[in-house]
Amino acid sequence: MISRIDLRGEALPEGSALRDLLPRAEFDVEAALETVRPICEDVRHHGAAAVIDYGEKFDQVRVPSLRVPAEAIDRALDELDPAVRAALEESIRRARLVHREQRRTTHTTQVVPGGTVTEKWIPVERVGLYVPGGRAVYPSSVVMNVVPAQEAGVEGLAVASPPQKEFGGLPHPTILAACALLGVDEVYAAGGAQAIAMFAYGTADGEDTDDEPGCAPVNLVTGPGNIYVAAAKRLLKGRIGIDAEAGPTEIAILADSTADPVHVAADLISQAEHDPMAASVLVTDSDELAAATEAELKTQVAASKHVDDRIVPALAGRQSAIVLVRDLADGLKVVDAYGAEHLEIQTADAAAVADRVRNAGAIFVGPWAPVSLGDYCAGSNHVLPTGGCACHSSGLSVQSFLRGVHIVDYTRDALADVAHHVVTLAEAEDLPAHGAAIKARFGWKVPDTK
User: Fold this and answer.
1) If we measure between CA atoms, which residue out of 414, 415, 408, 404 comes closest to residue 440?
2) Which residues share a beta bridge with 221?
3) How far apart (Å, rounded) are the C-alpha atoms in residues 349 and 353?
4) Which residue of the set 296, 342, 344, 382 is catalytic?
């Protein structure tokens, strides 16, 4: 059901040589670019009509209007299961606690008397938040995208999620209910590459069946999606900012003989049920744990849902494996090379081991902090870097929606004090006009600071 990779021989290789030995899904965004390019161009030139046409083609439902009516959003909340509502409200409450603490404040540094540099954090003006549909329903992604944007102070928030034939062309009602709980009333029934293009170019031409204005262009698009969403983000990056090109979801578990194989197997399965391309990786120095986990996988998979279409293909795929290492030191090298989206540490003294990890989207410490907790109610964000990008990228946070702007304020005396250095450096770079911009302020003579 799941393969083994034995790295207990010679010393582990370094860098890319080690990464090449580890399991990883094939996710060729570059190849998907040629598929999404004509879609994005069509939306650019034909606006809402093109988005609606592609919704009919890919989601098998033609919507009368992209904008979800306010009464549909309100109705979804009214009809929401009270237990689901309570769970979403608690998820929102905890996420706000964590993300509110991330907000940076303006800071001024006095470089010299009369010379200051202030770093001011300004929220992005308008953001498009993408919430995937398809195999599962993700109201939790609404929470994880909207809360940090709101805590950053973003004024314009628009959510897009694929139209669902089962619900008359509206996004899933639980997604709409989550939007209502968060006070988001601009929601569009649009999915895939066409939704990203809608955010990038806008649909100011209006929509086919009414006179309401379309979706205004956004400055930034966040939220995970399939390979075509990732390809559209890559194609349109520059016109819009993006959070990341999300690939297949993944879990890595670093565990020793103290770990409970029941927990380990359950956590591997929890990630595998997302998608056939989901990655589930166990890194361990214990033969006994590896064998016990394999046995538990057989037992627990048999009792699971989504077995044949998701879990078994994911666990059996090249992206999943049990990786055997000589000791925890090598295990740490492996998980750092892998750079997992979600990394669980299930070892003795798990907190100390977790403190030694360099590369991970989020780290879950010990047996009582499974990834599922982070998916919903830990307070952390579950929009995280995939595909090894955790070695250079962070998960979604309040900072994702802020721009740091430097404000430079110098008096005449403060500029005079450093003018000779500026002119010297300008001339060293053969940019004499840069130096002239300084000299012009002092009658074309550099002030004598001696």
Assistant:
1) 415
2) 128, 242
3) 7
4) 342
pLDDT in tens, 264-301: 999 999 999 999 999 999 999 999 999 999 999 999 99
Tokens read off for 18: 């080690």
Q: Is 341 a catalytic residue?
A: yes
What are the structure tokens assigned to 402, written together?
């802020």
| Identified catalytic residue from 186, 245, 296, 341 | 341
114: left (phi over 0), alpha (psi -120 to 50) or beta: left
**Ramachandran region of residue 71, left (φ > 0), alpha (ψ -120 to 50) or beta?**
alpha
Cα(281)–Cα(297) distance, integer angstroms: 13
Task: Give me the helix-helix angle, 227-236 and 29-59, nearest 10°.
Answer: 110
- Percent of the chain clearing pLDDT 70 (strictly above): 98
Q: Which long-range contacts (CB under 8 A, 24 or more apart) does 163-167 make?
A: 163/55, 163/59, 163/61, 163/63, 163/189, 163/190, 163/191, 164/59, 164/61, 164/133, 165/59, 165/60, 165/61
Q: Catalytic: 274? A: no
Place of tokens 């979801």: 249
Helices (H), 243-327: 261-272, 287-302, 312-316
Where does the pLDDT of residue 243 fall: very low under 50, low under 70, confident under 90, or very high at 90 and above?
very high
